[in-house]
Amino acid sequence: RHDYYELSISDGKYTLGPKEYNPDDDAPGDVGGEDALTTIGQIRNDQAYTISCERGVLGIQNGKLVATSRDDITLEANQFVLYKYNEIYYLYNLENESFVGLDDNETEGDRYASLTATSVKANISLGYGYGGDYPFTIKFNDLWLNVYEGYTPGLVINNYDALDEGNQFKLVPAGEVTVAQQESIKERIEETQKESIILTTILPLGTE
After folding, report:
1. Average pLDDT for residues 193-202, to the nearest whole number?
2. Beta strands 80-85; 88-93: pairing state
3. CA distances (Å), 135 to each of 96, 109, 126, 128, 138, in order?
4. What mean pLDDT do residues 13-34 have?
5. Scanning 134, 148, 150, 166, which has the fewest C-beta atoms within 10 Å of its C-beta?
6. Closest to 174 measured CA to CA, from 95, 105, 101
Protein backbone atom coordinates (compact mmCIF):
# COMPACT_ATOMS: atom_id res chain seq x y z
CA ARG A 1 0.00 0.00 0.00
CA HIS A 2 1.18 3.50 -0.82
CA ASP A 3 0.09 6.82 0.72
CA TYR A 4 -0.44 9.66 -1.75
CA TYR A 5 0.25 13.34 -1.11
CA GLU A 6 0.08 16.53 -3.10
CA LEU A 7 1.74 19.91 -2.70
CA SER A 8 -0.52 22.96 -2.87
CA ILE A 9 0.10 26.68 -2.50
CA SER A 10 -2.18 29.30 -0.98
CA ASP A 11 -1.37 32.88 -0.06
CA GLY A 12 2.28 32.21 -0.82
CA LYS A 13 2.44 29.24 1.57
CA TYR A 14 3.11 25.64 0.57
CA THR A 15 1.05 22.87 2.18
CA LEU A 16 1.63 19.11 1.88
CA GLY A 17 -1.55 17.14 2.35
CA PRO A 18 -3.06 13.73 1.57
CA LYS A 19 -4.29 13.02 -1.96
CA GLU A 20 -7.06 10.58 -2.85
CA TYR A 21 -5.80 7.65 -4.94
CA ASN A 22 -7.05 7.60 -8.53
CA PRO A 23 -6.54 4.28 -10.37
CA ASP A 24 -6.43 6.17 -13.68
CA ASP A 25 -3.08 7.56 -12.55
CA ASP A 26 -1.62 4.09 -13.12
CA ALA A 27 -3.09 3.58 -16.60
CA PRO A 28 -0.86 2.06 -19.31
CA GLY A 29 1.54 4.64 -20.63
CA ASP A 30 1.67 6.58 -17.38
CA VAL A 31 5.20 6.96 -16.04
CA GLY A 32 4.45 8.13 -12.52
CA GLY A 33 7.51 9.20 -10.62
CA GLU A 34 7.24 7.71 -7.14
CA ASP A 35 9.88 5.03 -7.73
CA ALA A 36 11.90 6.76 -10.45
CA LEU A 37 15.57 5.82 -10.50
CA THR A 38 18.21 8.38 -9.62
CA THR A 39 21.43 6.54 -10.54
CA ILE A 40 22.54 4.22 -13.32
CA GLY A 41 23.64 1.71 -10.70
CA GLN A 42 20.00 1.15 -9.71
CA ILE A 43 19.14 -0.38 -13.10
CA ARG A 44 18.41 -4.10 -12.77
CA ASN A 45 18.13 -6.90 -15.30
CA ASP A 46 15.08 -8.31 -13.51
CA GLN A 47 13.11 -5.09 -13.88
CA ALA A 48 11.35 -3.46 -16.84
CA TYR A 49 11.02 0.32 -17.00
CA THR A 50 9.03 3.05 -18.65
CA ILE A 51 11.26 5.69 -20.22
CA SER A 52 10.11 9.28 -20.54
CA CYS A 53 11.29 12.85 -20.90
CA GLU A 54 9.41 16.11 -20.49
CA ARG A 55 8.28 15.91 -24.13
CA GLY A 56 6.81 12.42 -24.05
CA VAL A 57 6.95 8.72 -23.26
CA LEU A 58 8.97 6.21 -25.29
CA GLY A 59 7.25 3.16 -26.73
CA ILE A 60 6.70 0.99 -29.76
CA GLN A 61 4.33 1.63 -32.66
CA ASN A 62 4.29 -0.53 -35.78
CA GLY A 63 7.64 -2.02 -34.84
CA LYS A 64 9.33 1.37 -34.48
CA LEU A 65 10.70 3.18 -31.44
CA VAL A 66 8.48 6.24 -31.01
CA ALA A 67 7.65 8.95 -28.48
CA THR A 68 4.37 10.61 -27.54
CA SER A 69 5.65 14.08 -28.39
CA ARG A 70 3.18 13.95 -31.31
CA ASP A 71 -0.59 13.60 -31.09
CA ASP A 72 -0.66 10.91 -33.78
CA ILE A 73 1.54 8.52 -31.77
CA THR A 74 -0.21 5.68 -29.94
CA LEU A 75 1.97 3.39 -27.88
CA GLU A 76 1.42 -0.33 -28.42
CA ALA A 77 4.08 -1.23 -25.84
CA ASN A 78 6.21 0.81 -23.46
CA GLN A 79 8.02 -1.53 -21.07
CA PHE A 80 11.76 -1.69 -21.66
CA VAL A 81 14.57 -3.73 -20.20
CA LEU A 82 18.00 -2.13 -20.09
CA TYR A 83 19.81 -5.43 -19.94
CA LYS A 84 23.40 -5.29 -18.75
CA TYR A 85 25.79 -7.91 -20.13
CA ASN A 86 29.58 -7.66 -19.87
CA GLU A 87 29.28 -4.01 -18.81
CA ILE A 88 27.21 -3.13 -21.89
CA TYR A 89 23.53 -2.16 -21.80
CA TYR A 90 21.10 -3.45 -24.44
CA LEU A 91 17.66 -1.95 -25.05
CA TYR A 92 14.93 -4.61 -25.12
CA ASN A 93 11.16 -4.26 -25.40
CA LEU A 94 9.54 -6.71 -23.01
CA GLU A 95 6.06 -6.90 -24.54
CA ASN A 96 7.39 -7.67 -28.02
CA GLU A 97 10.26 -9.83 -26.74
CA SER A 98 12.57 -7.99 -29.13
CA PHE A 99 15.65 -5.82 -28.98
CA VAL A 100 15.45 -2.20 -30.10
CA GLY A 101 18.26 -1.54 -32.54
CA LEU A 102 19.53 1.39 -34.53
CA ASP A 103 18.23 1.39 -38.10
CA ASP A 104 20.61 1.34 -41.06
CA ASN A 105 18.80 4.22 -42.73
CA GLU A 106 20.44 7.61 -42.55
CA THR A 107 19.14 10.97 -43.74
CA GLU A 108 21.59 13.80 -43.19
CA GLY A 109 22.77 12.16 -40.00
CA ASP A 110 19.30 11.48 -38.61
CA ARG A 111 18.63 7.89 -37.55
CA TYR A 112 15.78 5.89 -36.01
CA ALA A 113 15.39 2.56 -34.20
CA SER A 114 13.19 -0.50 -34.66
CA LEU A 115 12.43 -3.88 -33.13
CA THR A 116 15.00 -6.50 -34.08
CA ALA A 117 15.51 -10.16 -33.28
CA THR A 118 19.21 -9.77 -32.49
CA SER A 119 21.20 -7.49 -30.21
CA VAL A 120 23.19 -6.05 -33.12
CA LYS A 121 22.99 -2.23 -32.86
CA ALA A 122 20.81 -2.51 -29.72
CA ASN A 123 23.64 -1.54 -27.38
CA ILE A 124 23.18 1.79 -25.65
CA SER A 125 25.20 3.96 -23.30
CA LEU A 126 23.76 5.87 -20.37
CA GLY A 127 24.91 9.13 -18.88
CA TYR A 128 23.71 11.94 -16.66
CA GLY A 129 22.12 15.24 -17.60
CA TYR A 130 21.33 18.14 -15.30
CA GLY A 131 19.65 15.92 -12.73
CA GLY A 132 16.21 16.63 -11.30
CA ASP A 133 13.25 14.52 -12.36
CA TYR A 134 14.89 13.46 -15.63
CA PRO A 135 18.48 12.55 -14.76
CA PHE A 136 19.58 10.25 -17.60
CA THR A 137 20.82 10.56 -21.15
CA ILE A 138 20.67 7.70 -23.69
CA LYS A 139 22.88 7.16 -26.71
CA PHE A 140 23.03 4.55 -29.45
CA ASN A 141 26.75 4.30 -30.14
CA ASP A 142 27.75 7.98 -30.11
CA LEU A 143 24.36 9.26 -31.29
CA TRP A 144 21.95 10.88 -28.85
CA LEU A 145 18.33 9.88 -28.43
CA ASN A 146 16.30 13.09 -28.82
CA VAL A 147 12.53 13.35 -28.47
CA TYR A 148 11.12 16.02 -30.76
CA GLU A 149 7.74 16.37 -32.44
CA GLY A 150 9.26 17.54 -35.72
CA TYR A 151 10.10 13.93 -36.66
CA THR A 152 7.49 11.34 -37.71
CA PRO A 153 8.29 8.90 -34.85
CA GLY A 154 8.29 11.78 -32.37
CA LEU A 155 12.02 11.27 -31.88
CA VAL A 156 15.34 11.12 -33.70
CA ILE A 157 18.78 9.66 -33.01
CA ASN A 158 21.57 12.01 -34.08
CA ASN A 159 24.53 14.06 -32.88
CA TYR A 160 22.48 16.82 -31.23
CA ASP A 161 23.97 16.86 -27.74
CA ALA A 162 22.73 20.09 -26.14
CA LEU A 163 20.84 19.06 -23.01
CA ASP A 164 17.16 19.98 -23.15
CA GLU A 165 13.66 18.65 -22.41
CA GLY A 166 13.94 16.05 -25.15
CA ASN A 167 17.12 14.16 -24.26
CA GLN A 168 17.03 13.85 -20.48
CA PHE A 169 15.06 10.83 -19.35
CA LYS A 170 13.29 9.30 -16.37
CA LEU A 171 13.29 5.54 -15.68
CA VAL A 172 10.37 4.19 -13.65
CA PRO A 173 9.97 0.49 -12.70
CA ALA A 174 7.07 -1.00 -14.66
CA GLY A 175 7.15 -4.73 -14.06
CA GLU A 176 9.18 -7.81 -13.30
CA VAL A 177 11.38 -9.61 -15.80
CA THR A 178 11.22 -13.32 -15.02
CA VAL A 179 14.28 -15.53 -14.74
CA ALA A 180 13.25 -17.29 -17.96
CA GLN A 181 12.97 -13.96 -19.79
CA GLN A 182 16.35 -12.84 -18.50
CA GLU A 183 17.95 -16.09 -19.66
CA SER A 184 16.37 -15.71 -23.08
CA ILE A 185 17.74 -12.17 -23.45
CA LYS A 186 21.19 -13.28 -22.35
CA GLU A 187 21.24 -16.27 -24.70
CA ARG A 188 20.24 -14.10 -27.65
CA ILE A 189 23.00 -11.61 -26.90
CA GLU A 190 25.55 -14.42 -26.67
CA GLU A 191 24.30 -16.01 -29.88
CA THR A 192 24.59 -12.68 -31.71
CA GLN A 193 28.14 -12.25 -30.45
CA LYS A 194 29.08 -15.76 -31.58
CA GLU A 195 27.71 -15.09 -35.05
CA SER A 196 29.67 -11.84 -35.18
CA ILE A 197 32.90 -13.64 -34.24
CA ILE A 198 32.30 -16.31 -36.89
CA LEU A 199 31.56 -13.71 -39.56
CA THR A 200 34.64 -11.69 -38.63
CA THR A 201 36.77 -14.83 -38.84
CA ILE A 202 35.41 -15.76 -42.26
CA LEU A 203 35.37 -12.21 -43.59
CA PRO A 204 37.90 -9.97 -41.78
CA LEU A 205 36.87 -6.38 -41.21
CA GLY A 206 37.63 -4.26 -44.29
CA THR A 207 37.57 -7.22 -46.67
CA GLU A 208 35.24 -6.95 -49.63
Report:
1. 61
2. antiparallel
3. 27, 26, 10, 6, 10
4. 48
5. 150
6. 95
